[in-house]
């Protein structure tokens, strides 16, 4: 992870909830500078920090927002969407069978194969690398002599905690007071 002192290209703006916590760690909750400025003028956000760069129109000049906080609190207790990406995030972007963490090689696997009545749900899908997925085939992990993985439905807080293990490649210095990354787990 690289901390930039200069404004990143495009002036992305970190979006915080009304409690000054990020709305999301993975993906990191950011808006374009245009969206941030629009919400400033609609009085939906408070500007917490700015870049040194100026945004100008014929009648207004302002510093580009780098961090904004919502006025209205957005509840974080909604259930996360069941997506391939969220399954990979839950499983740490690694194969649950061998631990291989080559993202370009990840697939998802039905623990109980669909041919044996398994469904496509949080409780039956895990991240698996292609070789392990092929090795397992249409069998259960036990039948294939593989470890029995833990497939579960994560809540939003579990996914966000997992997302903190994978910080973006760059962050602006003005964002650092509002973000927490598991430093010992950084890649």
TrEMBL record:
<dbReference type="InterPro" id="IPR003615">
    <property type="entry name" value="HNH_nuc"/>
</dbReference>
<dbReference type="InterPro" id="IPR029471">
    <property type="entry name" value="HNH_5"/>
</dbReference>
<protein>
    <submittedName>
        <fullName>HNH endonuclease</fullName>
    </submittedName>
</protein>
<dbReference type="Pfam" id="PF14279">
    <property type="entry name" value="HNH_5"/>
</dbReference>
<keyword id="KW-0540">Nuclease</keyword>
<keyword id="KW-0255">Endonuclease</keyword>
<dbReference type="GO" id="GO:0004519">
    <property type="term" value="F:endonuclease activity"/>
</dbReference>
<dbReference type="InterPro" id="IPR052892">
    <property type="entry name" value="NA-targeting_endonuclease"/>
</dbReference>
<keyword id="KW-0378">Hydrolase</keyword>
<feature type="domain" description="HNH nuclease">
    <location>
        <begin position="82"/>
        <end position="134"/>
    </location>
</feature>
